[in-house]
């Protein structure tokens, strides 16, 4: 129960953040705006409203960018901030182990991110009803649950980084540097490697190792997991490369495995470091 006590206090402290409130409001605006723009484009180009799945595909983009930002803003200073201001020593002076603190921080900050996602998606759901008229609640629930898992992954990454350093500045640089790497550098580096190995970037059939590497970022895994839950290949790596002979990492269900690895590995490294350091 010690970790639960930490989580409750951490949730109460973090949920009052003005930055979080601003990001949650922005997330809500982006979800309803994405629903409106996708519906408007369908009306203009095709003369008819899109299906719920079509609109979910449109909402994946703002979710894919804003959920990691919200999760990292909430989590990067969770432990480093308390080490920096000295309050962590007081916290550990209570009957809490260091592992209790880490688990409690994960639970508390994931709860905060979950509230933000649920508020944003509730606004998006209103937008879907307004612009489409009928919505598959099952599909939308699946989308919401996978996005909550995606938020948990980035909370674990943020807590892991926060456990590795006593400086919030270093934790912030690490967290948002990692975002830039995932969003931009990852695909560029893989494409450079493709050119170095194959001598070209455009080909009828891409090598398995190339598709595998592109599938291993958390953002690609999020799309794959959504594709697995919703049965929509356009959300997954298979939608880009097609065919039935995709490598294991590019199959939709494997997105859950990749997300699990991204949650556990940074967190495990952070916990091991945190348990061995002198505060």
UniProtKB/TrEMBL annotation:
GO molecular function: ABC-type transporter activity
Entry keyword set: Membrane, Transmembrane, Transmembrane helix
Keyword match Membrane: yes
Taxonomy, superkingdom: Archaea
GO cellular component: plasma membrane
Signal peptide stretch: none
Residue intervals passing through the bilayer: 20-42, 62-81, 106-134, 140-161, 173-197, 220-241, 253-274
Protein name: ABC-type transport system involved in multi-copper enzyme maturation, permease component
Organism for this UniProt entry: Natronococcus occultus SP4
Lineage: Archaea, Methanobacteriati, Methanobacteriota, Stenosarchaea group, Halobacteria
